[in-house]
């Protein structure tokens, strides 16, 4: 009993030092000058543009990754085809490759001196930022949904097919309700990763205030370039708030569906 309590205390202490204390310090530094100063810092044109751009990227990336994730998870869990191992490796690639390398690869492919010779305005614009974010968030929906598909098996889907249901009806009425928890967690992870992406965006975004500067790039610019620590803390708090709002909304939506 004492060993269990000691392990729990050590785990909570480690979590507190690693996560809670830094977060508390950021919140303290953010609001030590009052709400008015915080509001003024996060309503500058650069901050509003960064918030809008970050939310735009999330709004594009999440649906793309949900569709790709569901299709890929179904293929991996239900299919048996040549190249399945390669597809598994491709899905896990973002876990192994540095996001900075992803940004460099996009420049080599889409840049002015790249393979496509700058045929499309991708680099240093919204499409490039979306491509980079899609890649780094690629595995989350797949890796959350695939184990659930393997666990539920195929019996109910086969029964529905036997009763005359089409593939779409089977997916919509049988498969999707069974995997919705996995989809939920995949979406939450994708949103959090999209909002917090920094490495790849430092390469492909350009970081021009008011044009191609996301919230993470705004935090970096204020802290490193402008030496505006208060502004950096304020932008970081907005990032935390957006992630928290996303989690709460998804939880409420899930509870409403269950009701």
From TrEMBL:
Database matches in InterPro entries: MetI-like, MetI-like_sf, Sulph_transpt2
Database matches in Pfam families: BPD_transp_1
Database matches in PROSITE patterns: ABC_TM1
Ranges of residues in domain ABC transmembrane type-1: 51-251
Main location: membrane
UniProt keyword annotations, A-Z: Membrane, Sulfate transport, Transmembrane, Transmembrane helix, Transport
Protein's membrane topology: Multi-pass membrane protein
Signal peptide range in chain numbering: none
Domain of life: Bacteria
TM spans (from-to): 12-31, 51-77, 89-110, 122-142, 230-253
Localization terms from the record: Membrane
Function text: Part of the ABC transporter complex CysAWTP (TC 3.A.1.6.1) involved in sulfate/thiosulfate import. Probably responsible for the translocation of the substrate across the membrane.
Subunit composition and interactions: The complex is composed of two ATP-binding proteins (CysA), two transmembrane proteins (CysT and CysW) and a solute-binding protein (CysP).
Name recorded for this polypeptide: Sulfate ABC transporter permease subunit
Organism: Solirubrobacter deserti
């Amino acid at each position: 009993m004492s060993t269990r309590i000691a392990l729990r205390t050590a785990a909570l202490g480690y979590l507190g030092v690693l996560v809670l204390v830094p977060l508390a310090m950021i919140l303290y530094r953010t609001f030590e000058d009052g709400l008015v100063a915080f509001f003024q810092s996060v309503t500058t044109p650069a901050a509003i543009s960064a918030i809008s751009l970050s939310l735009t990227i999330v709004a594009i990336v999440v649906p793309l990754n949900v569709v790709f994730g569901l299709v890929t998870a179904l293929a991996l869990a239900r299919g048996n085809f040549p190249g399945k191992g390669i597809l598994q490796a491709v899905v896990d690639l973002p876990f192994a490759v540095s996001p900075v390398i992803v940004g460099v690869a996009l420049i080599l492919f889409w840049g002015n001196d790249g393979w496509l010779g700058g045929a499309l305005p991708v680099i240093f614009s919204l499409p490039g930022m979306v491509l980079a974010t899609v890649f780094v968030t690629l595995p989350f929906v797949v890796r959350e949904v695939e184990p659930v598909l393997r666990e539920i098996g195929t019996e109910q889907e086969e029964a529905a097919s036997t009763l005359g249901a089409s593939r779409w009806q089977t997916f919509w009425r049988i498969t999707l309700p069974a995997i919705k928890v996995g989809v939920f967690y995949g979406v939450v992870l994708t949103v959090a990763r999209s909002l917090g992406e920094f490495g790849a965006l430092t390469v492909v975004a350009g970081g021009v205030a008011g044009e191609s500067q996301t919230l993470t790039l705004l935090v970096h610019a204020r802290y490193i370039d402008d030496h505006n620590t208060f502004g950096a803390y304020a932008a970081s708090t907005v990032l935390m708030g957006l992630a928290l709002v996303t989690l709460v909304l998804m939880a409420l939506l899930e509870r409403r569906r269950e009701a």
